[in-house]
Each structure stands twice: as C-alpha cells, then as structure tokens.
Amino acid sequence: MIKYREILRLHAQGVSQRGIASSCSSSRNTISDVLSRARTQGITWPFEKDMSDAELQELLYPEKDASSGFRRKPDCEHIHKELAKSGVTLSLLWEEYCLSCRANKEIPYSYRQFCRFYHAYASKTKATMRIRRKPGELLEVDWAGQTMQIKDNITGEDIPAYVFVSALPCSQYAYVEAFLSMDTESWITAHIHAFQFYGGVTRIIVPDNLKTGVVKASRNEPTINRIYQEMAEHYNTTIIPARVRHPKDKASAEGTVGNISTWIIASLRNQQFFSITELNLAIKEKLTEFNTKPFQKKKGNRLTAFTEEEKFALFPLPVSPYEIAAWKKATVQYDYHIHLDKMYYSVPYDYIKHRVDVRLTKDIVEIFYNHFRVASHKRLYGEAGQASTNPDHMPDKHKQFINFNREYVLDWADSAGMHILTTVRSILSSYKTEKQGLKSCIGLMKLADKHSMERLENACERALTYTPRPTLKSIQTILKTGQDKLPTNDSSDTVEKTGGSFGFTRGAAYYGGERK
After folding, report:
1. Do 274 and 347 sit in the same domain of this protein?
2. Residue 104, exposed/middle/buried by CB under 10 A (0-12, 13-18, 19+)?
3. pLDDT tens digit string along 251-262?
C-alpha cells in the first residue's frame, strides 16, 4: 500500500516531490496525485485524529474499496472507431469514459487498465492498432535501393529499371511500379499512379530527401521541389520530408522496401523482360500476392486491413489527375512576346523586358510574374516560328491594325471627310491587290496624325482638282509644300473635261492660252 501518512508528513516538512518519491518508493505522478487529492479533501499534517494509511486511502481513493464488479468495462469497438478520427487520442477517450461513468454513478477503470482493454481487443479482433498510426494519415514513399533489369531486344544489353515503393503505415498496404529513370517526371507519375491505386489521398506524404522531391534539406524548413509541391496542392495533401539520416521517420516504407526486394524483385530475378510495360505487369501480379499474403501474428492481410480499416479515411481524389508541368524562365521582348521552344507567345506589353516564369504542360503554356498569372496560351506544335498573340496584350496603337481591312479604311475615311473618302476609294481601286492599296492608306492615316485631319482634307481636295486618281506621293508633296493652305481655284480654269477615252486633260489656260 502507498505510504499516505509518510507522504503528507514529508510534504508538511517542505521536502520536494522528487525527495518524497525517493523516500516512499513511489512515482512522482503518484505523489502529485496524493497531494492534490489531500488538498481537495482538506487533509493536512498533522491530523486532527490519528488515521492509518488504509483510512487515508478510503478518504482519498474511495473507488479503490469498491468491488470491481461495479466498474464499467470500456466499449472497445467504439474506441477503435473514434481513434480513426483526426486529433482523437486514448487519453481523450479515457477522460470521456470517466465522465460518462461518473454521470451514471459507475466506477471507471484507470487509464492504464483502459489501454490494456483496448490493446487486447485490437490485437485479437483487428488487423491494425490505431495507437501507432491513424488510418489515412501518412503515405511513405521511396525508391528501392535494388534495381531490376530490362533486356534490349536488339543489342541484348541490360537496361536498369528503378522501383518506386509506397506504403500506408496503418495497414501496410503497398504499391510498387518500375520506371526507366528516377527523374522528376517519373517521381510525380509514380505518386499519381499510387493515388489512383489506393483510390484516395492521405493527409501527409513522407518522402526521402532526394533531389526530385526536396531541393534543399532542412530540419525546420526544407525547400520542396516546385513541381512536387504543385502536385501536393492539386491533391490537397502536405509533404513533410523525413529528417536526414533518420530512416525511422518512414519506417514502413523502409520495411516495405526490404519485403519488396524479397517477394517481388528477387522472385522475378530469373525472368527476362523486354519492355517496362511487360515488367510492370509482372510486378502487378506479385504485388497482388504480396498484399493478400496473411499476416503472421494477427488475422487478415494488407488488403483486408486497408479496405476495412483505412480506405474510408482517405481524402477523395480530385476530378482530374494532376498534369505534369515543367517550369522555365523567359524575358519579354520588345514585341511583347516570349520565345519558347522556337515558338512565340504574347504577354501584356506592360511586362516588356521583365523576367517571367513559364509553366508548360502538354496543352497549355502559362506565364507568371511574381507568382501571378499574366497570360496563358494553347501550346503550339509543328513548324518553328509560330506565334500565339492575344489582342488584349497589344498597345492601343497596335490594336487598330489587327483587323485592318478595306471596310476599316473606308469607315475611317467616311468619318474623316468627303475628299479623303474619295481619295481612299481611288487609291484602293488603283492597285491590282488590295494589300498594296491598304499599305498606301496606312500612309494616309499617318499623314492625318502628323499634319491634322483638316489639312489632309484640303490636300485631298486640291489633289482631286489635278487628277481623279491622286496618289499618296502627290498628297505628301502638297502637304510638304503647303499648297493645301492656298485658296482653291475654280476647276474650270485649270481642268477641262473632254470626250473620248482620255479622261481629264489640261486646259488652254494651263499653257498660257485663253479659253475660247
């Protein structure tokens, strides 16, 4: 029996709890609990009347004198289900169990006995122990140290195949796949296939500190590979790398790697494979055998443990799988385009000469500046030099030439003036191809910007007095010499219309003669 009298006496003399525990051969938790209960009951040394240790125990721990038949046994099935929920622990469930017992005037078991009941129940009737790992919490991933071989069917050369392994610590359910490389694309693809295999996503992924997953290892703030982090965000999960040289941080993956080396890699050592697809088909068959192999010390297997006790806790998969992307950097040129894989993609002209990040997928090109997306295009393939230009990315002066055609020019001329409209129609009809005429009309517009619309109207009016087919050059000359500012004479004094096929000819007044 605990020495209650001695504990209270030593405490009254100012001895520390550590000293009392050493003197009375009890734990410090027991000493602390006895003193707390004595303080609550108002029991202090010296006693008003002498009491024995048995009497003190009856006052401090009345439940210890009650028959064990009055104690309520915990509901282990309820405990097992509740432990699957996030944040729920055995200590929390024991507190709730105690409150429920006291509310029903029942005596609860101690925390240690409570845990023993659950441990015995889970060991006999369940495939997983929720004390160690919560279902759906972790996915541990790694590359197996041992490689497999593929035979080149032409040269007969052995090509190494690298084996990806993932495991769920709660159920030990594993996924295995072989790849020809350990690059970032293979690493991300392996995760996507693993999520599809499990039919859901865990809350946390625990990888090793390999370069395809972790750019810079750190105990507190590791730098995750950008594509790897993007994939985690797509699947609404978190990446927490294992500490450097701490393999126990992902003990399930390490243990599974050892088992895979025996039951899959070693068991296929005498077979020859001529493609990665053929190898993965053989791995899939062996993996099914591995996951359905019965446990040695408990009932069930990895598959039943997963389907019955862990699958429900996984996050659902997103509507579409993650699409692998590559990141590159580019500089926006003066023509507000970036050059990427021999193709050109437009960016808002405000970012000219700025350095931008480019995300490339199979079908889409996205352009980011300071983590904000500023442009996106459909990815171009085929002949080099193609350009994808968004009109909204162009300056205002450039936009007017996007749909520059005959109708645009005529609308502008109609709003500019009657003589300008006549001149534009004449210019358009004087060329064999419309493109040549439009080029001259652009020059006419620039003259309006340079000299003013009023002067251009006067210049076109004077040009039409000389000829019904004025040219851009003649109008430029009129504006340059200032003839548009001179008063316009009557056309009958300078131009004489004749019949025949010669159109307009100069009159006699032009040659110094008199009109008759």
Report:
1. no
2. exposed
3. 665 677 777 877
